[in-house]
Amino acid sequence: MGHMLKNTVFKSGSYALGVPQGTNSVAPSPAANGQTRYNTGTGKLEFYNNAVWNAVAREGNVVISKDSFSGNSLRSNYGPLSSAYAVGTLWAANILVHVGTVYQIPGTNYSFAANAVNAALTDISFISNPSNLADITIIHGFASTIAS
Fold first, then answer.
1. Which residues touch 146 (CB under 8 Å, ≥6 apart)?
2. Which of 79, 93, 94, 129 has the most other CB atoms within 10 Å of its CB?
3. Model confidence pLDDT, tens digit, residues 101-139
4. Cα–Cα distance, 35 to 52 (Å, whole number)
5. CA geometry: angle 21, 28, 46, nearest 5 deg
6. Residue ranges covered by each domain of the chain
7. Following DSSP, what letter does each residue of 38-66 receive, concatenated?
8. Residue 76 burial by CB count (10 A; 0-12/13-18/19+): exposed, middle or buried?
9. Rg of the Cα trace of the chain?
10. Contacts of 117 (CB under 8 A, 6+ apart)
């Protein structure tokens, strides 16, 4: 039987809060939303939410990337991006796309496509071609759990 912590003040100094730990094979089953554990196989703290164990970003500077392109009304694909994304996916929570100062809605304004030169790389594909010389800014990497 576990102990409950309620209105507890932790001592300062050489103390730490322990969390359950283990590999994927010993993760709780069934797990409940909000459970937290340290995955010794991946070396990452993770929490359970909607049937998935999600890694928690470590303290430090998460690497966020920015790609910039200049619009051309005759083309819809721009790339390659500095990070690869699965073709056809949207990644709405992990990427910000602007043409000029206008935010682009995933699925409505753009999706991802294979790069024409190297299929292992990813392009962004706009539904409507951006106007000539429009600044296209793509900021991504928000979901990274790799700290520098």
1. 58, 62, 63
2. 79
3. 999 988 899 988 888 899 888 899 999 999 999 999 998
4. 11
5. 50
6. 1-56, 65-140
7. EETTTTEEEEEETTEEEEPPPSS-B--EE
8. middle
9. 21
10. 80
